[in-house]
Specification:
Blueprint (H helix, E strand, L loop, with lengths): L2 H5 L3 E7 L2 E7 L5 H8 L18 E4 L2 E4 L12 E3 L12 H9 L8 H14 L5 H7 L11 H13 L4
Parallel strand pairs: 1-5
Antiparallel strand pairs: 1-2, 3-4, 3-5
């Protein structure tokens, strides 16, 4: 079979999402974002720009923060993926989720999942960040609602509380 025909055929792809092994049938070049939302129903991951510029679709892929709109699902084969749904539960929010709510860091909600995952990634590497560290750690995520002050405050508050496990 030619390479062009192979790319038009669906493949079985397995990975671990939020601690659970998942297998999907998808086109190898289909965006990870679309598979997470459409095939697995993980709609917390948002599409903002579809071009990797806004960070709304950010997920952790083997512990690295990535824009899921730029990742072909085949690239995620065998990987560990964490989405916003993997951080907390509706009745037991993650410390970052609590801080975003308390500090007003969540407004319209489009950027919030990506911001929280970027903050989670930052705080795992640097549990005591400066304001500059927070700005740099969230630099790939755009927000049109908050002006960033409340978001930065939420990350700093979660770090102060050491509530970021």
């Amino acid at each position: 079979m030619s390479q062009a025909r192979e790319s038009r055929s669906k493949s079985e792809i397995s990975f671990t999402v939020n601690g659970l092994v998942s297998t999907v049938r998808a086109y190898p070049m289909e965006r990870l974002l679309d598979v997470l939302r459409g095939e697995l129903g993980l709609t917390g991951t948002k599409e903002g720009c579809g071009e990797g510029e806004c960070g709304s679709c950010s997920v952790l892929l083997d512990g690295t923060l990535v824009n899921s709109c730029l990742i072909p699902v085949l690239q995620a084969s065998g990987a560990r993926i964490t989405t916003i749904e993997g951080l907390g539960e509706p009745t037991r929010l993650h410390g970052l989720q609590k801080a975003f709510l308390e500090c007003g860091g969540a407004q319209c909600g489009i950027c919030t999942p990506g911001m929280i995952l970027a903050a989670f990634h930052l705080l795992r590497k640097n549990p005591d960040p400066t304001l500059e560290d927070i700005r740099e750690g969230l630099a790939g995520n755009l927000c049109r609602c908050t002006g960033y002050a409340q978001i930065f405050e939420a990350v700093a508050e979660a770090a102060r509380r050491r509530d970021v496990s």
